[in-house]
Amino acid sequence: MEADDLSLVRKARAGDDGAFQALVVRYQRKVYAVALGIVRDPDTAWDVAQEAFVRAHGHLAGLEGSEAFAKWLFRITSHLAIDSVRRERRALKDAVEDVSEADLQAGGEGILSTPLGLDPSDNALRRELAGRMAEALAQLPEIHREILVLRELEGLSYEELAERLDIQKGTVMSRLFHARKKMQALLAGYAGVAAGGATDLERGEGSEP
Amino acid sequence: MSECTRYAPMLTARPGELTAGDAAALERHVGGCDRCRAERAAFLATEGLLAEGLLAKAAERDFAPFTDAVMARVGRRHTRRGRVFDWVTHHRLRAALSALAPAFAAVALVVYLRGASPDGAQAPHLVVLTTEGEATMVLRTEQGPVVLMTDGD
């Protein structure tokens, strides 16, 4: 049976490198995925993910007993990833991001469910759409990448997002909405809505764009 | 602001994230709005896919070098920390003695001077004589002068 995070953390705190290595192996892919979603560049994400583990190791003593190691680790990762991105650009102001009628139209309505609508349980279709979403993410503006990754990978609530990003809860909701709509717009071609009628998948065409 | 633009940002809220009033108003709106219903269905249909996609990209990479690199960096920290700890432990006694040396010297001087004066006896003292450019240290005692030899002698 696998040791739980808490017992591994306790052993790692006591100097057991094997226990810390078990935590690294357990979470390295997800930590990398979080970093990749935010920084886009695979090499930078690799470095950020490594740094996250090293920092976590150095601060294990500061981890509260009741706090989940994974959640804490992902927080370190996203902080590092966001810092990495922000070092390269000027600060964005926290403007209120209202939703307009044009925003509602962007990307079409319900387009992403179109290919899945054939068979929502089809794993191949899900995998393909998931891969395209991951690629499309890299084309989104930084603030939208950040909030989507924090929401979808870290699973943060509106309140947690507001606190993490230092924005109001209303801004969290509208920013998330904009991010999702932009994602829809980027995937519109894949969903086949722009062409009208059947999707590429429905027409039996390949998965290449 | 239309009803849709007001409620659209709330469509992907999880249970408990909206106030009871907002949640009820959202449901009333979605119940009568085809567009928002379709929007919500689309969001829900693709929920979790982004995470799947990113994790799939991560799974394409070989993480053995990653693990090794992290553990090497962590090990170096251990080593550095260990070295510092060893140095401090090793030098603790020496450092303590060094710190106390002036105090020992002061106490010894006081004891020496007090021991020399009560019976009126002359306390030995050191005199430096210079002859032909060479300095010689002579300790004057009650028994007579004692010339302190140097390595060169």
Mean pLDDT of chain B: 77
Largest sheet of chain A: none
SSE series of chain B: HHHHHEEE
Q: In what order do the strands lie side by side in the largest sheet of chain B?
A: 1-2-3
Give the number of DSSP strands of chain B.
Answer: 3
Query: Could you give the order of the helices and strands of chain A?
Result: HHHHHHHHHHH
Helix/strand/pairing category of chain B: alpha+beta
Shape annotation of chain A: globular
Which structural class best describes the helix and strand composition of chain A? Answer: mainly alpha
CA gyration radius of chain B, whole angstroms = 44 Å
Apparent shape of chain B:
rod-shaped
Bin the helical content of chain B: 55-70%
Low-confidence stretches of chain B: none
Query: What is the arithmetic mean of pLDDT of chain A?
Result: 81
Radius of gyration of chain A: 20 Å
- State the distance separating the first and last CA atoms of chain A: 44 Å
Report strand % of chain B.
5-15%
For this entry, what is the oligomeric state of its chains?
heterodimer
* Secondary structure: helix percent of chain A: 55-70%
